[in-house]
Design goal:
- The strands form three sheets. Strands 1-2-4-5-6-7-8-9 form an eight-stranded mixed β-barrel, surrounded by seven helices. It has a five-stranded antiparallel sheet with strand order 11-10-14-13-12, sandwiched between helices.
- Helix 4 runs parallel beside helix 5.
- Helix 4 links the parallel strand 4 and strand 5.
- The protein has 18 helices and 19 strands.
- The N and C termini lie far apart (145 Å).
Length: 534
């Protein structure tokens, strides 16, 4: 820290520094956390003296205030920054800090507006930052200065929020466009749950009031991602850009781009989220429930009450262990204890003995941004109808399978090209084989002469897309030859193309024997008639 010889020397050096251009504006970017584009720059005073070297702002700013040079320094900084930045691309804004004492000047707003206008920079792209201490100047003059600055077209930012003693009443009544979270809270964001809660509360406060919130002192990517996830719009800090001379600031603006537009802040405040969640909970078509770390119900929607067969009651605060203290609930309670211990379980089916209903329950362990456990989220879906339908379908499939296996006919199917890819089970020599093996077994047992004939008939018939029928002999499991009839019908699409062939094979040996017997009788009758001259 530079030590100055005397107050007179300090005043002389500082006054001369403004005239000699030794004090210069440094530009620190204010960045949109989601896009990482630059929304604006905070302008900070820097003093490089040929005699004293680099003088820290922590030294010369308080001295300037004590020597009555601070307002002159502020206007000089505004003039220089606006002049340098007026031709830069984009509609970024410039933010300037003013001391509490400056708001007691009756013509503060007029002086700022005249300085900005003289530099050729748009007043609507100027932001004045006010520290919380400035709010304690409970005078009509200070309030008129704030209102006049707002009327001039500039925006207002409340700086270092959370470190002073401002009342929420003043915060609500003054026309702020932005709140800046002090860097001390952001610095401990990754390790201190208290800082995390304070930042969350400030973000919610800003969102509820409809103002942007910017976090100062962002130094790690983890901090930036946490803040973005929590709904913070803007960020400032060494991670996003250090205070730099105008040439470096312009280069960063060209590299990162400028955020265009002045959209209103997104209301993702706890107040807004509470109403959203209450609506979702109330109208959700499934059961929703949240348990705290002691397995007590924090929230549960009407579906949960209905599923549990309870009268409409207040479940909040009730222990889930006592609520589910009934036969059949042990498996669900065991699963909740596993999730409580950190296990990740797939959704599981549970039978509720009290109602006879079956539910699919998804149980998810919930943690905050610091990976601190908050509780367990439950999603409950009534699948009783599905389970019942599956049971009926399974029984029907079993009946159909047994009917096919025990029936006298054998089902088969083929693709559009005629290749048989399914042959149903039949009799004692087929159940142990696959569909393809059963088909090959049938081909092997066909009469060799019929095998080639039937195959040729089948291939020649395919283009007709008409029902198919043929008869052939096959060696039965009892080593007797039997006649069978194979019929197939095409399944066509809307264009008349064959999607699949479905067929059935039936034993017609009795029919053939009857035909043979009728033929024998007809022959005998003919012979008898010839013998008797008939």
């Amino acid at each position: 820290m530079t030590t100055l010889a005397s107050i007179d020397q300090t005043r002389a050096c500082l006054a001369g520094a403004l005239q000699a251009g030794e004090v210069w504006p440094a530009f620190q970017p204010l960045v949109r956390l989601r896009s990482r584009r630059i929304a604006g720059f905070e302008v900070l005073a820097r003093w490089t003296s040929p005699v004293l070297g680099t003088v820290s702002p922590g030294v010369f700013i308080p001295l300037a205030d004590g020597l009555g040079l601070l307002h002159e320094l502020s206007l000089y900084l505004i003039r220089e920054a606006c002049t340098l930045a007026r031709d830069w691309p984009g509609d970024f804004y410039l933010a300037f800090n003013l001391a509490p004492s400056q708001f007691l000047l009756p013509d503060l707003a007029e002086q700022i507006q005249a300085t900005v206008t003289e530099a050729g920079f748009p007043m609507k792209r100027v932001q004045i930052e006010i520290t919380e201490n400035a709010l304690f100047h409970d005078s009509q003059v200070a309030r008129r200065s704030v209102d006049a600055i707002k009327r001039s077209g500039a925006t207002l930012s409340l700086d270092d929020f959370g470190t002073g003693h401002s009342s929420l009443t003043r915060l609500q009544s003054l026309p702020f466009d932005e709140i800046k979270i002090d860097a001390s809270f952001v610095r401990d964001l990754e390790s201190d749950s208290g800082s995390l809660k304070i930042v969350t509360a400030v973000l919610g406060l800003g969102q509820s009031l409809g103002v942007h919130v910017i976090a100062e002192g962002i130094e790690t990517d983890r901090q930036a991602k946490l803040l973005q996830h929590m709904g913070c719009t803007l960020g400032q800090g060494y991670l996003l850009g250090r205070p730099a001379p105008h040439a470096q600031a312009l280069a960063q603006l060209a590299r990162d781009g400028c955020h265009s537009g002045h959209d209103s802040p997104l209301d993702a405040s706890p107040f807004q989220r509470l109403h959203q969640l209450e609506t979702l909970y109330k109208d959700a078509p499934v059961g929703l429930c949240f348990l705290d770390t002691e397995m007590r119900i924090i929230s549960a929607n009407p579906k949960v009450i209905q599923y549990l067969g309870l009268e409409r009651m207040e479940l909040r605060g009730r222990s889930v262990k006592k609520l589910l203290n009934q036969p059949g609930s042990g498996s669900l309670l065991d699963a909740l204890e596993q999730v409580r211990a950190g296990a990740e379980l797939a959704p599981t089916e549970y039978l509720h003995k009290g109602t006879g209903s079956t539910f699919l329950v998804a149980h998810q362990r919930v943690c905050n941004e610091l990976d601190e456990w908050l509780g367990i989220s439950l999603v409950v879906i009534d699948i009783t109808a599905r389970v019942t339908a599956e049971r009926v379908l399974q029984q029907s499939e079993e009946h159909f399978r047994r009917s096919i296996e025990l029936g006298p006919n054998i089902a088969w199917a083929a693709g559009p090209d005629g290749a048989v890819d399914y042959m149903g089970p039949a009799f004692e020599w087929t159940p142990l084989h696959s569909a393809q093996e059963r088909y090959e077994r049938w081909r092997d047992r066909m009469d060799p002469q019929d095998r080639d004939r039937v195959h040729a008939e089948w291939l020649a018939h395919l283009p007709s897309r008409a029902p198919f029928k043929t008869e052939f002999r096959i060696l039965w499991p009892d080593n007797s030859w039997r006649w069978v009839r194979s019929q197939a019908y095409p399944h066509l699409n809307e264009q008349g193309e064959v999607l699949r062939w479905y067929g059935v094979i039936m034993d017609i040996s009795g029919e053939r024997r009857l035909e043979h017997r009728v033929a024998e009788l007809e022959q005998k009758m003919t012979q008898w008639g010839e013998l008797h001259g008939l």
